[in-house]
Amino acid sequence: MSEQPVVRAETLSLTFQTNDGPVHALKDVSLDVQKGDFVSFIGPSGCGKTTFLRCMADLEHPTGGTISVNGVSPGAARSARAYGYVFQAAGLYPWRTIGGNIRLPLEIMGYSRPDQDARVSRVLELVDLTGFEKKFPWQLSGGMQQRASIARALAFDADILLMDEPFGALDEIVRDHLNEQLLSLWDRTDKTICFVTHSIPEAVYLSTRIVVMSPRPGRITDVIESPLPRERPLDIRDTAEFLEVAHRVREGLRAGHAYEG
């Protein structure tokens, strides 16, 4: 199948100029992300995972190489509303209801009020928050706030979801539940998801492909195609297949001098 990749990076590099001299955040990163992929990026802090995601989103600008999203520049993809972005913190406005927070990008984009209502209702159902539209963020748990943040990113129906450690601050039980929900959401919507994480089990559980990155300057040390089936109950994490993939990720991190304990 020769379908054009959703994201294509070729020898992508990014160097930040600082008062202490240049910081090489990314170096010669080449990767294709295909439509419908769930790709996780894993590596130590400062390895360029988030920088790579931000390049896709046109929030950072490479100093070398090229990157395209849906065959166009990240800037053009951003203008075309090609992606939704979910940050580490939910970033909900406390003075707006959950529905009002989800509605915000739709208001900015000029959707009609009936269309806004229909979209808010649909995405609340997708993230299992039906009935919470009139609640305020402070009335919701951290996990529910993050689900509302995902709903906001889905509201204008972008094909690509960029997620920067969205569950990193949550406890393990909530995180497991949200991992299950995210897989179910991906299965139902057929989105292409690029997901940054520090957690090996999370990366292996969620992904069709796992991209292992080295410490700065961020390079790709391994790309692992997951052999796991699309249907993944949580207890798949106890299987030999799962543990084998997790071992390969760990070895990849070690090879990049990135394994920390």
Q: How is this fold's topology laid out?
A:
Elements lengths: L6 E12 L2 E13 L4 E5 L6 H8 L7 E6 L4 H6 L3 E4 L11 H12 L3 H14 L15 H13 L5 E5 L7 H18 L2 E6 L2 H7 L2 E5 L6 E6 L14 H16 L6
Parallel strand pairs: 3-7, 3-8, 5-6, 6-7
Antiparallel strand pairs: 1-2, 1-4, 8-9
What labels describe this entry?
single chain, about 260 residues, alpha/beta, Rossmann fold, 2 domains, six-stranded mixed sheet, three-stranded antiparallel sheet, 9 strands, globular
Give a written overview of the molecule.
This protein has 261 residues and is α/β, with parallel strands linked by helices. The chain folds into two domains: 184 residues, Rossmann fold (3-Layer(aba) Sandwich), CATH 3.40.50.300; 65 residues, no CATH class. Helices cover 36% and strands 24% of the residues. It has a six-stranded mixed sheet, sandwiched between helices. A three-stranded antiparallel sheet has the order 2-1-4. A hairpin with a 6-residue loop joins β8 and β9. α3 crosses α4, α3 runs parallel beside α5 and α4 crosses α5.
